[in-house]
Write a structure and sequence with these properties.
Bound molecules: 3-methyl-2-oxobutanoic acid, sodium ion
Subcellular location: Cytoplasm
CATH superfamily: Phosphoenolpyruvate-binding domains
Number of helices: 10
Largest sheet: 8 strands, parallel, barrel
EC number: 2.1.2.11
Shape: globular
Keywords: Cytoplasm, Magnesium, Metal-binding, Methyltransferase, Pantothenate biosynthesis, Transferase
Binding site for Mg(2+): 44, 82, 114
Order of helices and strands: HEHEHEHEHEHHEHEEHH
CATH architecture: Alpha-Beta Barrel
Number of strands: 8
Radius of gyration: 19 Å
Pathway: Cofactor biosynthesis; (R)-pantothenate biosynthesis; (R)-pantoate from 3-methyl-2-oxobutanoate: step 1/2
Amino acid sequence: MAITTQQLIQWKQQGRSIVALTAWDYAIAQLIDAAGVDLILVGDSMAVVLGYETTLPITLDEMIYHAKSVRRGVKRALVVVDLPFLTYQESLQQAMHSAGRVLKETGAQAVKLEGGYPAIAETIARLVQAGIPVMGHVGLTPQSVHQLGLRQQGKTQEASERILQEAIALEQAGVFSLVLEHIPADLAMQITQKLSIPTIGIGAGTHCDGQVLVTSDVLGLTEKHPPFAKVYTNLRETITKAVQDYAVEVRDRKFP
Ligand code: KIV
Ligand code: NA
């Protein structure tokens, strides 16, 4: 049975932790869905597996292409797709067009937008009114990398208060869930207690209602990963070894 946004809110009430991971194509999505992940995010962090330095260059067409591939692999998880940089900030019309394309063309159930400042909260409220489920994202927002860097956010009293207010504004705007990225654990706990929608943390401590990681980090597929990621296996080593073994056998005429 497919997981819904209402199900996630129920799980928060029941204290059941939500398991989320990212995916960028059919093969990965099919594996992580079958392994029991609750929410699959087609994150613009797929920039790393596409060879980009930041998330900024990814286009809406690229996100849609990958989201369609992911969607074909998923039977159970809720599929959420990131709206990439400057496909929603320009105007409400632009955001509606981008989010609408994602839902209509990919079959994903929801979109995610970065930021909690008033104009974004307003845009999100209108998307939600139009029937588009939206996930929020505050704290470190990688689409603002040239302003924020990749540092932990919310370290000062003032910054921490601002992020809390953004979280409240996004809940009022109607997000069904909120990503908290790279903020102090006590701030994430405070936000989690304050909101009735589930918080999904990444580098935000243990007190969130769920956790998300970037799958290429979890699998050890990329050269670098952020300090808060946990690498559960090293696919770079596994793949390198398999390819080297194959190359040796072909050159020695042992395979086939
Ligand atoms: O793009 C992404 O992977 C994300 C997660 C880190 C939440 O936005
Ligand atoms: Na993202």
